[in-house]
Amino acid sequence: MLENPRSPRVRQVAKLAKKQRRREAQLFLVEGPQAVREALSSASGSVQELFVTASSADKHPDIMELATQAGVEVLPATDEVLAAMCDTVTPQGVLAVCRFIDASLGQVLAPGVRNVAVLHEVKDPGNVGNIIRSADAAGADAVILTEASVDIYNPKAVRATTGSLFHLPVVTGVSFSEALQALQGAGLRTFATQANGTDINELAEGGALAQPTAWIFGNEAHGLAREEAEQADVRVAVPLYGQAESLSLQTAAALCLYQSAFAQQRSGHRGAGLAQ
Question: Which of 9, 62, 153, 208 is the most buried (most CB within 10 A)?
């Protein structure tokens, strides 16, 4: 039982909340029962060790069983120890240390890929995590983060994915031009979101979204630079019917990814899924 929140072991884990330490160790934190459950259930085998309080172990026997099946070391810890290691104010009593699960452009752009999200200069970890979750829900094949975007292993970003980080491959650290060239080379049509672009409804009605698509989303505050948006095959606008000045980035991303999913499903390229 880990009881001392100031022990070297606890401090070592807590340091993974910092980007530099994560990069050095190639490890990151996964907090909460749902995300840890998905990590243990995934084929990545990335979970290195698991910390749980006694009450959480009793409450989530399925997680204990998954850890046993995966051969993951389970370390009992007090509430105080979990609080010292976790990034959240109110930890949920379950914390996993996982190895990085980076994917490469070559891996994700294999034949058959049809729906991809690209995040360029997206700085808010909560936005990145929520977009990964939306991409997962829409059945997207991958998410690509350019080198100018926030670290996907930021604890807030990982929490916001609610486990979706372990459901679809995520590419990180590539340049904008590298990502764009690879996508176009793989036969995907690239769509950049821009206020003065073509109405997304026109594209959907015309069948443009039924083909393999890659959606490019820019910074929360200023979007994509004009010269970057012009490198995409199509500039797309999401119409606003009310008085709001704009949509949030994560809402716009979810809408665009689902438009492609709907179009591809109607054309017979996707199977139907049901929300749980």
Answer: 153
